[in-house]
Amino acid sequence: MFRAKYEIKINAPISEVFDKMLGIGDKSNYEHWTSPFSPSSSYDGVWGKGAKMYFTSRDESGHVHGMISEIVKFEENAHVSIRHIGMLKSGVEITSGPEVDPWSGAIENYSFKEIQDSSLVAIELDIEEKYKESMREMYNAALGLLKELCEQ
Where are the alpha helices (DSSP H) in the chain? Predict the structure, then answer.
């Protein structure tokens, strides 16, 4: 696994960035900024420590696919840690096997820090080496959308 790191400074209060990034007040905010990963990106679940989350999208046939994850740490306006435990394929949960085992247990950390009147969002995530470049491109695009969303 490779530990990727991304960060962005957003000219908006942490509470607003945190809310829009996670789609807490309006899930469409999450769906908007994550669209570079998949045009139908969404999630099913409730943000909170110990919660099971499904990070989903739909394929061309309308079948739901995605990641099954657990919220390991949730500190409002400060930090969210997500551990991936499996995948959802056409609505079926898969938690072991050759498709899941190489990345099962991978972590995503999102940290939020106030810098004067702005917010710094720092992301660290475990990814397979072969996805390093494509993830960098998608995260750069996604974080650009998050910045636009929060600063408008």
Answer: 14-22, 27-33, 132-151
Domain that residue 69 falls in: 2-151
The answer, as to whether pTM is greater than 0.70, is yes
Q: Per the structure, how many domains does the chain have? A: 1
> 71 - beta bridge partners?
82
CATH code for the domain of 8: 3.30.530.20
What tokens does 32 get?
A: 């908007």
Name 85's Cβ contacts closer than 8 Å, sequence gap at least 6: 68, 69, 70, 95, 104, 105
Residue type, 63: H
Asked if 149 and 17 count as a contact pair (C-beta separation under 8 A), the reply is: no
Q: How high is the pLDDT of residue 149?
A: 97
DSSP 33-73: HTTTT-TT-EEES--STT-EEEEEEE-TT--EEEEEEEEEE
**Interatomic CA distance for residues 61 and 74, integer angstroms:** 34
The 10s digit of each residue's pLDDT in 77-113 is 999 999 999 999 988 899 999 988 888 899 999 999 9
- What angle is formed at CA 51 by the lines to CA 22 and CA 111, rounded to 5 degrees? 40
